[in-house]
Amino acid sequence: MSEPALEARGLSRNFGALIATDDVSFAVEAGARQALIGPNGAGKTTLINLLTGVIRPSAGQVMLQGRDVTGLAASARVRMGLSRTFQINQLFPDLTPAESLGLAISERNGSGADFWRVAGGRPAIVAEIADLLQRFGLDGDLDQPTRKLAYGKQRLLEIALALATRPKVLLLDEPAAGVPEEERRDILAALAALPSDVAILLIEHDMDLVFNFASRISVLVGGRLLTEGAPEEIAADERVKAVYLGEDAHG
Amino acid sequence: MSAANPSATAGRLAAHLHRRARWRWGEIAFWLALLAAIVALPARAGILNEVIIAGLFALSLDLILGLAGIVSLGHAAFFGLGAYAAAILASNGLADPTLGLIFGAAIAAIVGLITAPLLLRGADLTRLMVTLGVSLMLGEAANRNAWITGGADGLNFSPGRLLGLFPIDFTGQRNAALYSFAVLFILFAFARRLAQSPFGLALAAIRENRLRAGALGVATSRRIVAVYTLAAAYAGAAGALLAQTTQIVSLDLFDFHRSADVMLMLIIGGAGWLYGGLIGAAAFIILRDVISAATPEYWEFWIGLALVILVLAGRERIGETLRRLVGRLAPAARRGVA
Amino acid sequence: MLTILFDGVAYGMLLFVLASGLSVTLGLMNFINLAHGAFAMVGGYVTALLMNRAGVPFLLTLPAAFLVPAILGVGLERTLYRRLYGASPLDQVLFTIGLVLMAMPIAAYLIGDEPQQVHLPQWLSGRIDFHSVGIGVYRLFIILVCGLIALGLQTFLVRTRFGAQLRAAVDDPRVAQGLGVDVDRIFAIAFAVGSGLAGLGGALAADVVGGIDPSFPVKFLVTFLIVVTVGGSNGILGALFGSLLLGILDVAGKYYVPSIGAFIIYAVMVVTLIVRPQGLFARGDGR
Lengths: 251, 338, 287
Prior knowledge:
The complex is a heterotrimer. By secondary structure, chain A is of the alpha/beta class. Helix content of chain A is 37%, strand content 24%. Chain A has helices at 44-52, 74-79, 97-109, 123-135, 151-164, 181-192, 207-213, 231-236, 238-250, and strands at 6-15, 18-28, 33-37, 59-64, 67-68, 82-84, 169-173, 199-203, 216-221, 224-229. In chain A, the strands form two sheets. Chain A has a six-stranded mixed beta sheet with strand order 6-7-8-3-9-10, sandwiched between helices. In chain A, strand 1 and strand 2 (18-28) form a beta hairpin. Chain B is mainly alpha-helical. Chain B has 15 helices and no strands. By secondary structure, chain C is mainly α. Helices cover 72% and strands 3% of the residues of chain C. Chain C has helices at 2-29, 36-54, 58-79, 89-111, 137-159, 161-171, 173-178, 183-208, 216-231, 236-256, 263-275, and strands at residues 127-130, 133-136. Chain C has a two-stranded antiparallel sheet with strand order 1-2. Chain C is globular and about 60 Å long. Chains in contact: A-B, B-C. At the A-B interface, helix 2, helix 3, helix 4 and helix 5 of A face helix 1, helix 9, helix 10 and helix 11 of B.
């Protein structure tokens, strides 16, 4: 049995007295369809930031395909195959989708430091950009500055960008957040069409999306991993229900 | 999930990505007109030379501010370094202009490389202060080390003949202008190419969203250091040209107001599309001469007023209009950049 | 040596009063006001002109040196500055540089280029010899006055309701607004007080720096910025320690190693920014 695609070992992070992440250990297998759920404030985004290298852990390790990446910068982890999307779109407002995707692909190819060739001069890259644009339905807007795109399209670009790095592990931070009803289907379809050899960890509040997508669910509460298991187990787990019902009672 | 024809998409995509590659007729006209002005108006060679050198200096700032979104209040330091390096070389017997030019650019680049890591941490305000601090330190160091720099008295030197043939001092003003033009053009063409390369695209991404650039695998720190070093080299080259063609170097090259002037030039013309610095430099110098002739003592007041109005009106609008006329050469600077 | 220390402390206190306003606008509104020195210049001119042309005694000019720039500050804040509160740092820098560049020729036009001297009254001049340490009377006066101001500011911030509102507005303007704090009014008042203090500082500094002339704002701009950078924009304590540190280092440096000159304070600033980009005393969140 090969090692997991992504693994957290005893990850902890505190901000002064506030313990945001408390000794979290879990694994995402290659090709997995896994979801991370938990009430607001459970520390899901902090965990993602720890896994991707945006912040350093106070304790613990992050393993990417068996290699310890705890000390590596975010961009280095990306080059090793770990990508993410952001809960709030992090895009390039004045670049077009074509340029944004081209950038991601060039970097992956190692030609990101090329200062002589005109970007988009290599047919292979152009073909790949075109393919991604079409898969995500962005080819109609390929030459528009990103800030002019509809929100749903921007969200799709957010995912497409992460995919352009050809990751082995993809972390999706609430991909459907804020997307209007009509455009949600496109997001869901895009998620369903993601390559099967990529390990995917999905953070979501939308339970329909979670139960439709994931074959394994991890539950994070107050920075600690409460439980993990198959969707049926989680749906039946009393503690999970209490956490969410408790939230409903207040909210 | 899309209905578009794949080959139509590919065609449109290729056209889009290459839209800035070819030199437009407007650009060609610009360079030819500038060259023609130098050739046809030998009496104006002095001011044309000044405009070209200022334009190169502003272009160097555009590389960091316009392309990469790095703010700097101390860019004059590299200009001064290049000027003094070339002057010191010449006053010690190595007066060949080409050598001095390369030396000036190299010295500035080395200092740029060393100080670049200071830019990586902290927010924009930190960057402003650090760049200002470094340029002030260099200015002060130049002041204190009068045995190298000649201090307040300046240096005595004269440049050799360009390529061994053409005098570029006061007897060869037109040669000097042509020399500066050649340097500007070559460096501009290279910068133009760079702006459209994957490297240039990475810089634009860093400017637009540094967090996401890193999340896509861009080695943001290395790119920033690289472009800062290059910008320092360009500014150093401009300084060397100034020293060689005017035979004047003075400590005020390190002054804060030089950094402010070049910033203003770039903003008049608009940052990010590479021609902004050139146009801004021309506008600035012409305006300065016109206004100084009328009210010499209060020139500062008008610059101040121009800055205030420019900022209140929105820096981007003037640049946008100019860009629409000539077309962009690099992904345009974001509204309210820096 | 103690004399040097004493002089350094005096200079530092002066810097504190001069730069405290800048610290407040930076820390409070995240606004970089490079025109701050112009307010100091106005205060200095008020004192010099009142003394030299109207014969007003030195001490009596000081309140005017505070009030005139304060009123000017409020006026400018209401009309111009507030449009740029959300603007990028670069925009703020350029705008305020523009203001300074306008202010200096106006001063030259109205008052002239020669430095306006402030002639200290008899009772403030001279030195006292205290156990073989030479203490300048005026320097002592500066330390006392500025110390009182520092104390007053700190008490005001910590003990009064307005001070509490100010601190709330610094921490989180939106929340403060929601709690009923009139953030707009607080900004205006803080700006006025900051400009007034700058003016007072300018008046006090006039004798020490050899007179007030139109280039004052730019000459001291860098010094102010360094104070604010090193001391952080967190509050009175930080600004005070930053000023004292710089005052002492600058005076001592110029005395013991004259060839270094201003180099020291620039170097201190750069080193501070490398080690702690938010300044020595800033909050942990680095704002």
